[in-house]
Structures are given as C-alpha cells and as structure tokens.
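Internal ticket #5521
Category: modeling
Description: The requester needs a full-assembly model to guide mutagenesis choices. All entity lines are attached below as received. Residue total reported by intake: 347.
Assigned to: D.W.
Attached entities:
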Amino acid sequence: MEKWQCQVCGYVYDEEKGDPDSGVQPKTKFGDLPALWVCPQCGAAKDQFRKLENAKTNGKEA
Amino acid sequence: MTKPEDYRSGDPIAWCPGCGNFGILNAWKKALSQLDLKPEQILMVSGIGQAAKLPHYLRCNTFNGLHGRALPAATGAKIANHELVVIAEGGDGDGYAEGGNHFIHAMRRNVDLSYFVHNNQIYGLTKGQASPTSDICMVTGTTPEGNPFSPERPLALAVASNCSFVARGYVGEMDLLKDLMVEAIKNESFSLLEILQPCVSFNKSNTYDWYKDRVYKLEAGSYDPFSQTAAFQKALEWGDRIPIGVLYRSHRKAYEEFAGLKGTEPLFRRVRKTEDLKGLADEFF
C-alpha cells in the first residue's frame, strides 16, 4: 500500500485508510481515485500529489 | 446517527485549489456528524467573503447577509428560535473590520452562538488587500511598500472581553479543528473559534510551511484555560510560536438564561391574537 502527499498543504493520502469522508473506501489505490477527487484538506487536484518513498513526511510520521 | 456526507450540498465549490477553506468544510462535516445534529437543527449565518461562502456548501438552514453583519442576524435568529444551533461564519475582514463593532458587542451580550472566523490575513474575495490581521510590513495589493499598520489581536480582545469560550484552530490540524468545533458548539454561551487558514492565491507570506513551523498545541494537562491572565498572554503570542487549542473559558451566564428563555416556547412559535394585544395598544393610544 502506498502513501501520496499533497505538495500544496502536506496532507497524506494513505491507501490503507482511503478517504471515507469523501466516499473513498480503505485500500483504494491512489490511481483508482475518482478523477474529480481533491485533497480533503486544501482542494488541490490529484496531479498535485507525489508518491512518498518512505513513511516520513515533512519531519512528521505519516 | 448522521454521517459527514449528510451535510454535503449540491452547490459547486468556487474556492481556489489549495485553499484552507476545503479543510474547514470537511472538519465541519465531521463535527456536525459527531454532534449528531440533523441539518434542519442548524442555522449557519454569514456575511461576505470567501469564508462566508461556506454555508452554501453545507446542507443546513443558511442566511447569507451583508458584509460584516453575520452576528446581528445570527443573534436575532437565536432569540427568535433558541432551539436552533446557530453558527455565524466569516473571515478576518468580514468579522474584524466591517463587523468589528458587532464582534465586541456579541461577546458582551453573550447569546449562545458560535462564531467561526477563518483568518487568512488577507481579503481573498477581492483579490488580495491587507486585512486587519495582516502582519506588519506585509506586501499586498493595497500595501505595495509593506503594511504600515499593526495587526489586530482578536483573541486578546476576546479574552479581555471575558468571552466565554476562546479557541484557535489550524486547518493543517484537522482532527483538533474538528474537536474545537464540537467544543465551541457544546459551550452554552458565545463561543469564538478562530481558524488559521492559508490563502495560496493572495497571501504568499503565511503559507502552509510557515504555519507548520510555528503552530503548537496547548496541552490540556499543563495549560489552564480558566486563567484569564495566562490566556491573555497566549492570545498575544504570535510570530515564532502560535498556540492552537482552547485558550480561554469563563463561567458566564448566557443571555438566554438572564432572559428566562430556556425551556420556553420559542418566540416564532408563540401565537398572539389581536385581542391579546388590545390592552397594550390601549396604553399607547
């Protein structure tokens, strides 16, 4: 399972957890997110996300 | 039990991608769901601004009025129907400039409202003019050589006014923000919740990275929000370190308690026949 980080606000999309508040089930692959899905914290589009290579993000645990 | 998606409205969202308002909206849906409030139990009142658009994006009762005038409309609505959960929502310009006078007197009157102020330190809707909370020397459309004015410290004003609940959240800490929203609504007097919110389009100074390096949480065990002196110091803290959490609480009777409104039939539901008013009319004519 991968983690993807919003380059605008730092929010991390964790495939393990999904984004249930936006109707995205746990274990949903980042690539399978709906085209209109946006960052729940800042509204940035999917193309603003980068895959995290390890579990550390901006000095915080993801 | 209500779910966050129960509060989703059908209106298309007209905020810039990257705007902190998205996180505030999502925190709202979670908070309302946790409180298990039905959309028809809630009234959201706003004035003008990017933040004031938020009620359009939530499914509940809404009233979108004049610039800076959310609080008087919210106060009137609450007095007419004290069974409603009434929330006024707006930005730093709307609330602290145009609505500054109402802000002070709403805290003094202490009606059971929650006032949520999205503070992005800029006028976003009108595309980037200095607001009452813009930092000194900040370059904006109206201050091209740097803002010459000292920023307002609204939370210090609130603590000095003995506001019954004073808190600050940050959109980058969404779980805490949701908890603060819940606490503000549960408080049975006037509650102020300021929400720090980056504006990626027009405020290039106070960015997500800028906040990330500065905000810190007030811990419940080591900080006593009932001390007005300590709260005043925290409310003035800004710059290298910015506290978030509940800064101040006071035990104040709400207006509704003074007026004996609690447990009574809401004003809007009371039926008055013309003959009931005859005696009163006779006194005047």
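Resolution: model delivered.
Comment from assignee: Residues 4-284 of chain B form a domain with the Rossmann fold fold (CATH 3.40.50.970).
Ticket closed.
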